[in-house]
Amino acid sequence: MDNTTLIPLLIILVCAGSFLYKGIRGFLAASKENRRVRELDRSGVRARGVIAVVHPLERSPHGHRVTVTVAGGDGRRWEAVDASGLNGYLVREGTPVELTYAAGDPLNIRVERAAFPLPLQGLYPLYPHGLPKPPSPAWPLLYAVGGAALVLGVGVLVLNGGEAAGRFVPLLFAVLGPVFLVLAVRGLIRRGTGERRLTAEATGVVTDAWTEVRRRKGNNERHRTYRVHPFTLHFRAADGREVHHRHPVASGSFEPVVDQPLQVRYDPEHPADHALVGHMNAALGKSVALFFIGLVSTVLGVALTFVFWSTPPV
Question: Who has greater pLDDT, 162 or 171?
Fold first, then answer.
């Protein structure tokens, strides 16, 4: 085997191995979280508690971890950590909460309701649209197997001859393109439905801002670096509830600074559902990107498929 074949083969194997490594890591993490949530749903015991410690945000995309002093029905008290981020809410220390803990593991808890900051208003649900579902291990496994199989398949076609790759690779893009388009349209429809509930406004404040250097491949196959500017945002709703989390969109064109005010539009029933006024938001950004990828894949895939498959092989 000469170098002209060995080097591409090694690149193909490394890429396939990368898919397998990331997918298997994701599968193991999702399986662990799935077991934890299933245990809560299967043997969960309702209890009350009080927020004892609000841990720093630490630029986490999930929100604040909290330590809760749990009061069991039998008079026992213990402390446990909820690392879910409470759906983006900032629930202050001393706030009464309602939670579920696993009967076989009292340290496995999920805070589900918290008291309003203002007295005599009762408790509000942290997850009004349904409790968070456990991640499915099937997706990272599909990512691992599908990604590796795709890389190996395309690699075999390329190594066996450019004509075979030219006939089958465009067909693959022609099939995947419409799938991306459907996902993009569904995301845009959901975003439009959700934004109709954002009828209240507040002024948020940037609590932290930083720059991250990321890498992407250029046309010459070399990795190029580019900068994005993530930030964390805090705002208070009219009823006193607070939201504090890392904003899900970081761009290279918008570089906020600490203490910068930003206008927020939110759902008065559930302030964690919100969007920045005048800036790209996560749902829109993902849907636009998927639509663009799907459109380009469909057009190029169909065109190249027609060209290669209409031309008889030599």
Answer: 171
